């Protein structure tokens, strides 16, 4: 990739120039981060034995950055650590958790086990599960200010106090059993640093420079880690550390996980970094796709010589839409497009059901990314880890971890060629080649493997990397970070995108609604495209077994200059005013 002027400014910036960098999809962000690290290390900008820390949201992103590094020699490469937040905090607790009563040999529990434990606890103390889980989400975000939380959340005050007590009981039970969940790992590092600031100082001295990826996706706990590393502390007398923070508020789509786009403003206000922007799109050479993405980010049409349009096909029902999708796929295959370069996406998985059934009927191979969400894999392959749990609980010292895994696969009838099984197998073999790992007792190996898989495995990325000759079916949230030659975006209807709740509140109850996250979901879906994009919309859809009438999504209005509307069943173009949502 040829570096552009903005990339060069960021890569070769002075060490004391902290920056927040707006990084849209396809802008060469990972390349820029890697070259920044190369520059700092190869030009001796990092002092003595100090290091650069990169914080990302997935092991896949960390690996991609490592692959792009050009620093030569193991000594120079050892000057960089690129980790996701949970892996970073896990390593801290393994080294220093005993200072706050955490054993170094703790096990990480799955999200399924977390939900089950909380559900059982709520049942035991007679608290409604939905009330409990909603409030605990708030606790996770406000872990250092429960008093304010109790005052501000609209809920019976006695119920709130009971839920807080229940959560504290849940946390203590985990610690008593030498176990932690994902949020607790980060929470306990914050507790360690706040109660014993010398350990925060230790890591601030160790890491001279920070690079933070996908900042718009940070939740409150993760942001607390970032701000302490940069320089926030309770006394307010700490010098700030230099950093580069890569962020795109238009890709903020994880509000349900506590990620808020407003943290972009917080880091600007708290640390006053220089604001930069990467604005070239290296993902696609299509001027049409570039124009649409630019427009969805709030810009105007950037070219006058582009007469192309994206087709948005409108159908009477989902069956006709699904037939069209399959015919389109067959046409792409005839044009020698590989199946793995085709992605059918929508706002919800329910919207993909008819297409999925038709693919099954026609025996067309596909990857349904819903099957590769971590909680689905944890449930489906639960028995894989049961022998590991026995080894850990009984502190077994002898035996072969790889034999235990293979015997479990055979006993449970797991296909060794299955993507998940094959990936875990390779992961164990890779660890077995590590000299430190070889010296561990078998129960410690089992613990290490299980924790590392929970912490570092990004199953969506694994599937994308290892899949050939299969179409991808997915919701937008699960393909964020991926790209495809051809994207078919289904479900451009009201009550689908925007969501049913947003549409109901806006159109039926006439309430002001913040549509920013819904608009971002639309943008993220569109920006997965390398070459060709197609939209579809259906006048009738099936929701929970009931047929509903629908209109074209109001989001089309924002890019209507680039969209050709076609009534597919009548084979003729239509005007936007004839099919739009009445409130558009």
Radius of gyration from CA coordinates: 25 Å
Strand order of the largest sheet: 11-12-10-13-14-9-17-18
State the secondary-structure class. alpha/beta
Q: What do we call the CATH homologous superfamily of the largest domain? A: P-loop containing nucleotide triphosphate hydrolases
Indicate how many domains the architecture comprises: 4
* Distance from first to last alpha carbon: 41 Å
Tally of DSSP helical segments: 27
Strand tally, please? 18
- Helix amount: 40-55%
CATH fold-type name of the largest domain: Rossmann fold
Strand content: 5-15%
The averaged pLDDT comes out at: 87
The low-pLDDT segments are 144-148
Q: According to CATH, what is the class of the largest domain?
A: Alpha Beta
Shape: globular
Q: Could you say what the CATH architecture of the largest domain is?
A: 3-Layer(aba) Sandwich
Tell me the major beta sheet: 8 strands, mixed
Structure write-up:
The protein has 27 helices and 18 strands. 48% of the residues lie in helices and 14% in strands. It is an alpha/beta fold and 584 residues long. Helix 14 (287-296) runs antiparallel to helix 26. Strands 11-12-10-13-14-9-17-18 form an eight-stranded mixed β-sheet. Strands 3-2-6-7-1-8 form a six-stranded parallel β-sheet, with helices on both faces. The longest helix is centred in the first third of the chain and has 20 residues, at 157-176. It folds into four domains: 5-97 and 185-277, P-loop containing nucleotide triphosphate hydrolases (Rossmann fold), CATH 3.40.50; 110-180; 287-365 and 469-579, P-loop containing nucleotide triphosphate hydrolases (Rossmann fold); 376-462.
């Amino acid at each position: 990739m040829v570096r552009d002027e903005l990339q060069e400014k960021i890569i070769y910036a002075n060490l004391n120039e902290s920056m927040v960098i707006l990084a849209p999809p396809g802008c060469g962000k990972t390349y820029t981060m890697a070259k920044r690290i190369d520059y700092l290390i190869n030009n001796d900008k990092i002092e003595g034995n100090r290091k650069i820390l990169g914080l990302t949201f997935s092991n896949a992103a960390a690996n991609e950055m490592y692959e792009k590094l050009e620093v030569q020699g193991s000594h120079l490469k050892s000057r960089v650590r690129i980790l996701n937040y949970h892996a970073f905090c896990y390593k801290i607790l393994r080294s220093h958790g005993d200072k706050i009563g955490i054993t170094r040999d703790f096990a990480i529990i799955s999200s399924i086990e977390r939900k089950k434990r909380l559900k059982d606890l709520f049942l035991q103390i007679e608290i409604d599960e939905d009330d409990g889980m909603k409030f605990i989400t708030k606790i996770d975000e406000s872990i250092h200010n429960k008093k304010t939380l109790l005052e501000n959340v609209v809920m019976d005050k006695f119920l709130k106090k009971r839920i807080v007590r229940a959560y504290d009981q849940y946390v203590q039970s985990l610690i008593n059993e030498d176990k932690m969940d994902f949020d607790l790992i980060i929470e306990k590092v914050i507790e360690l640093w706040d109660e014993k600031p010398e350990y925060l100082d230790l890591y601030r001295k160790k890491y001279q420079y920070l690079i933070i990826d996908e900042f718009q996706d940070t939740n409150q706990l993760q942001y607390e880690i970032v701000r302490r590393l940069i320089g926030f502390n309770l006394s307010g007398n700490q010098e700030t550390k230099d950093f580069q923070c890569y962020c795109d508020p238009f890709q903020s789509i994880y509000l349900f996980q506590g990620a808020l786009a407003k943290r972009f403003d917080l880091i600007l206000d708290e640390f006053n970094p220089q604001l930069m922007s990467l604005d070239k799109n290296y993902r696609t050479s299509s001027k049409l796709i570039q124009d649409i993405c630019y427009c969805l980010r709030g810009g105007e049409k950037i070219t006058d010589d582009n007469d192309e349009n994206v087709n948005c096909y409108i159908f009477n029902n989902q069956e006709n839409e699904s037939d069209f999708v399959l015919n389109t796929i067959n046409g792409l295959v005839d044009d020698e497009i590989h199946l793995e370069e085709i992605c059918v996406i929508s706002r919800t998985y329910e919207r993909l059901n008819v297409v999925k059934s038709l693919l099954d009927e026609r025996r067309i191979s596909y990857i349904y990314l819903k099957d590769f969400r971590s909680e689905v894999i944890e449930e489906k392959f639960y028995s894989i880890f049961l022998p590991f749990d026995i080894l850990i609980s009984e502190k077994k010292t002898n035996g072969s971890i790889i034999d235990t895994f293979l015997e479990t696969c055979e006993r449970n009838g797991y296909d060794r060629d299955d993507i998940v099984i094959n990936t875990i197998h390779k992961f164990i073999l890779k660890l077995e080649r590590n000299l430190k790992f070889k010296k561990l007792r078998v129960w410690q190996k089992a613990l290490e493997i299980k924790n590392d898989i929970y912490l570092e495995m990004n199953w969506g990325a694994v599937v994308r990397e290892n899949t050939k000759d299969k179409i991808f079916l997915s919701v937008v949230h699960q393909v964020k970070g991926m790209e495809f030659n051809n994207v078919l975006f289904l479900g451009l209807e009201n009550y689908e995108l925007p969501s049913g709740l947003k549409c109901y509140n806006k159109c039926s109850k006439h309430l002001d609604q913040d549509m920013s996250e819904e608009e971002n979901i639309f943008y993220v879906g569109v920006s997965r495209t390398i070459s060709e994009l197609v939209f579809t919309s259906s006048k009738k859809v099936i929701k929970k077994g009931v047929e509903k009438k629908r209109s074209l999504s109001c989001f089309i209005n924002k890019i209507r200059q680039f969209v050709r509307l076609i009534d597919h069943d009548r084979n003729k173009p239509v005007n936007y005013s004839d099919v739009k949502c009445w409130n558009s």
